[in-house]
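Hey L., structure's done. Input below.
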Amino acid sequence: MICSECPRRCRAVRKPDSGEGFCKMGTLPRVARIAPHYGEEPCISGTHGTAAVFFSGCSLGCVFCQNERISHEGFGRTLTTEELRARIEPVAARCDTVSLVNPTHYTHLLPALLREPFGKPVVYNSGGYDSVSALRALEGKIDVYLPDLKYRSARLSERYSAAADYFEVASAAILEMVRQTGPFRMGEDGILQRGVMIRHLVLPGYSADSIAVLRWCRDHLPSGSVLYSVMSQYTPYSKACAIPALNRRVTAREYGRVTDFLSDNEMLDGYIQELSSAGTDAIPDFDALDGVR
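Output:
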C-alpha cells in the first residue's frame, strides 16, 4: 500500500505489519487495548463503559501525548480485521458504546470492520487531523464523531504537534462530520446516539488560542448542533516536561477565561472539568489487554 490515508499524504510504503510513514504502522490494525473504558464523557462511557479499541500509531506528533507508548513507541499487537472484529464483539456486548480511539491511519479498514452494526453507537475518537475524503468513505458507518480541535494557531500546532496545517485540516474535517451526523441526538438513557462532540484541551499559557478555537466553532457551526468538551486536565507528560512553557498545569484564571467565553456565547451543551481532573490517573493500563492476547 502506498499511503495517502491521513492528511500528511506521505506516500509511504505500508506492509501488513510495518510501515515507513509518519505513523510507522502497517496496513493491518495494530491494537494496544480492547476493554471497557470509563474515562470518557458521561454520554460516551455511560454506566457500563465504552468498548474502547486503542489503535497503535498516530498521524500527529503531540509533545504532551499521554498515550506515547502506543502512539509513537509501537506497543500493541497486529490482528487481521476479522480477528479484531471478533475481539470487539464480546466487549461491546457489555458496554454502552463502541469507541475507535485514534483510527485516522486505519480508515481503509473501517468499512470492513463496521460491515455489521454492533448494536451500540460507534464513536470515532480522533485527534481531529482527518482527511475529508477518508471521512466521506465512512458515511453511514459512524454514529458519533469525537474529534479534538487542538489549536487555532499554525505556529503552535507545528511546534507542539508537528502539523502546521492542523487547524485547516481539522476544521474542514469537523464540518464534514457535522454534515454527516446532523445535530446531536441524546438517548433517553443519556447516551449520545448521534452527532459530534468537539474536545478541546486548554494548554498552559495559551488560553487566547483556546478562545480562538471556540470562536471559530461559534461562527461556523449551527448553534446547538454540537456538544463541547473543554478540558482542564492538561498534565506535563512525555516531551512536554522538557519544554518550559508546557511544564506546568493550567491555572484557574486561564481555564476560567475559556469557560467564561463558553458561557458568554451560550455554548453550554457539553462538559467542562474541575481543575482537580489534571493528573495521569485516567491513562489506561496498556498492559491489561482485555481481549487482545
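The two ends are 27 Å apart (CA to CA). The first helix runs from residue 42 to 45.

-- N.
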